[in-house]
Every structure is written in C-alpha cells, then in structure tokens.
Amino acid sequence: MPQFSRHSRRGRILIAIGLGALLVGTSACTRIRTHQGYQVDKLLVDSVQPGIDNRASVEGTLGRPSFVSQFGEKDWYYVSRDMRALAFSSPKPVDQTILRVRFDPAGNVVAVDRMGLEKVANISPMGATTPTLGRHRSLFDEIFGNIGAVGAAGMGGGSGGGAGGGPNGS
Predict the structure, then answer these.
(1) Keywords, A to Z (predicted)?
(2) Cβ(91)–Cβ(39) under 8 Å?
(3) Within 13 Å of residue 119, how many CA atoms lie on the same side as its CB?
(4) CB-based contacts of 164: which residues, under 8 Å, 6+ apart?
(5) Element at 111 (helix H, strand E)
(6) Smallest Cα–Cα separation from 66: which of 108, 105, 99, 111?
(7) What is the three-class DSSP state of 37?
(8) pTM passes above 0.85
(9) In angstroms, rounded to a whole number, what is the distance separating the alpha carbons of residues 160 and 170?
C-alpha cells in the first residue's frame, strides 16, 4: 500500500508539471491585438454631409486628419487599422478603414469616401538583392574600371577651358 501512494504522488507531480507547462505555453502564444490611427465613430462619420459641411465643421466633428493630400488641401484622410499578431510573428492587418473627405476650392465638402482592407498592398521582396538598371560590373571592374579615365575629355579632368580656371575663364 505505501508503494501505491508513492507512485500516485509522483504521477500527481508529473501531471502538475505538465499542466504548468501547458499554461505557460499557451500564455506565450497569446494573440496580440493593436489599433493604429483614428478611432472611427460611425455616427460622427455619417454626420459629415457633402454640400453642408466645410473644413471647419469637419475638423470640429472628426478632429484633425491623419494626413492631408500632398498637392493642395483638397483631400483629408482619416486612417484606422486593427492589427493582430501571434507571439513574435509579424503583425497582419485584420480591419482597416480609410475615410477620405474631399473638398472643393472654397473648402466645402464635395464627397466622403470609405475604403477598407482592399487598399492594403502586400509587398513581398524577392531574393536578397534588388534588381537595378544599368551595367553589371564585377569587383575588378569597380576597382580598376576608372584607370585611364582620369583626365579624359568630358570627365572633369584638367583639360583646359571651362569656368574660372584660365586667363579666358574669369
């Protein structure tokens, strides 16, 4: 009988260690959720009306935009994105809202457009090098390729003429 209780105690300890490892393992693989950018309030966004609102009323309702179009102040953008990652993996977008408010030259709202995840671009680099245009040169071409080019015409060498150098240049 004493042997049976000793084995059951050992079994309980092993079960406790296994459960502890399972709990630690699952907590390390917790999904991480983050929100970036503008907090979209559907009621406020729906209250912006073309032909009624202007820049001042949109700023009062929605706040300052995430960014403004680069060429003039025609469009205001409000960007909101929810991301999710598992432990140490790269975060992936789960939900995205891009709200574009377009203005006319007088500053009145012309249109309010909504876009989602379809605007997320997945850029996947190929290989370890970036392809470039131009000549493919070896290491030796790079090192020894300019021999004889120093002082050649059109290469900026010391071949007379030009601005500021000689008696006719100044």
Answers:
(1) Membrane, Signal
(2) no
(3) 13
(4) 170
(5) strand 109-115
(6) 99
(7) strand
(8) no
(9) 13
Cβ-based neighbour number of residue 58 at 10 Å: 22
CA atoms within 13 A on the CB side of 44: 13
For the record, the structure tokens of 79 come out as 């960007």
Query: Which domains does the chain possess?
Result: 40-119 (3.30.1450)
Which residue in this structure is represented by tokens 């060498």? 157
Q: Which long-range contacts (CB under 8 A, 24 or more apart) does 54-57 make?
A: 54/103, 54/106, 54/107, 54/108, 54/109, 55/103, 55/107, 56/107
Q: How far apart are CA 58 and CA 104, in angstroms?
A: 13
Q: Report residue 34 as tokens.
A: 């983050």
Q: What is the pLDDT of residues 53-81, one digit of tens each?
A: 888 998 898 889 888 888 876 889 898 88
